[in-house]
Amino acid sequence: MPTRLLAHDGDLVQGTVVERPNRFVLRVRFDAASEAVDGEATDATAEPERVHLSDPGALRVLQPGSPVLCSPVDDVSRKTDWDAIAVRDEDSDCWVSLRAALANDLFVAALDGGYLTGFPPFEDFEREPSLPDHGRADVKLETADGPVYVEVKSCTHVEDGVALFPDRQTERGRRHLRSLHDLVEAGVDARLVFVVQRPDVAVLRPYRDVDPEFADLLASARAAGVGIHAMSVAFEPPEYVLAGANIPVEVD
Predict the structure, then answer these.
(1) CB under 8 Å to 36, separation ≥6 — which residues?
(2) Are 209 and 202 in contact (CB under 8 A)?
(3) Geometric angle at alpha carbon 236, from 32 and 114, rounded to 5°
(4) 180 — phi, psi (to 5°)?
(5) What are the angstrom distances between the C-alpha of 213 and each of 116, 171, 179, 193?
(6) What is the CATH T-level fold of the domain 102-244, as seen in this structure?
(7) What is the rounded CA–CA span in Å between residue 29 and residue 18?
(8) CB burial readout 31-52, b (16+ within 10 A) else e
(9) Among 1.10.3720.10, 3.30.420.10, 2.40.50.580, 2.40.100.10, what is the CATH number of 3-97?
(10) Angle ∠(9,13,18) on CA atoms, nearest 5
(11) Residue 158 CB neighbour total at 10 angstroms
């Protein structure tokens, strides 16, 4: 039986990507015959609508004509009435989650469920803890041997079973790697976890062609003692289920 981690709370309506005018917006056509995943007909029209995209990555899987699942939002302060939840990669026949911020919740759910190896037993955890010097991490685990700081990254780009991160240059990601490197040099346990939000992956590698400095920093961080982990998740509407608990990470 699939290991359920989380579930989407809300309606899901399928549409078709028309274009992506900027990093945070899609134009999606909801056909008049579109139905919610639960089978209830929608009031959608054939005119393309603006949909909020919370993942600012390159997202090459998002192409005109791609099927996309969206969730309606009732908020008068919003400029868009929809959130993009997942896009269908028809070549791999899977849904690709478009909720980058969900990676933290997916990691915590998998860890709390005891599905991930390589982490020490922990008594408690804290979200967005302050780091000893400056900045914040995504998660801090409280263990008998002291804190373990964890940085979590969402990954959606996969080629022939290889997850590649990042799909666009990331100064933020490079800064986080430097911070993790500094922590282990100070004697603090620090980890980086990639959450691949699609199931069609066997291994994760840095995308050197996109960000060679990130690739170099990742190799340096691992050599210094930073724990590098990866897991994969399948979106089976409305549920997010664990696909791979411990995906190998290859650095070069």
Answers:
(1) 11, 12, 13, 42
(2) no
(3) 155
(4) -65, -40
(5) 28, 9, 15, 18
(6) Trna Endonuclease; Chain: A, domain 1 (3.40.1350)
(7) 7
(8) eeebebeeeeebebeeebbebb
(9) 2.40.50.580
(10) 130
(11) 25
pLDDT the model gives residue 92: 92
Rounded-to-10 torsion of CA 37, 38, 40, 44: -20
Distance CA 193, CA 201 (A): 15
Contact 81, 43 (CB under 8 A): no
CB 30 within 8 A of CB 15: yes
> Could you tell me if 209 and 58 are in contact, meaning their C-beta atoms sit under 8 angstroms apart?
no
Task: Give tens-digit pLDDT for 51-81.
Answer: 999 998 999 999 999 999 999 998 888 889 9
- Numbered ranges of CATH 2.40.50.580 in the chain: 3-97
Structural contact between residues 249 and 15, judged by C-beta atoms closer than 8 angstroms: no
Q: Which residues does the chain have with pLDDT short of 50?
A: 33, 38-44
The model carries a pTM of 0.91
Amino acid at 98: L
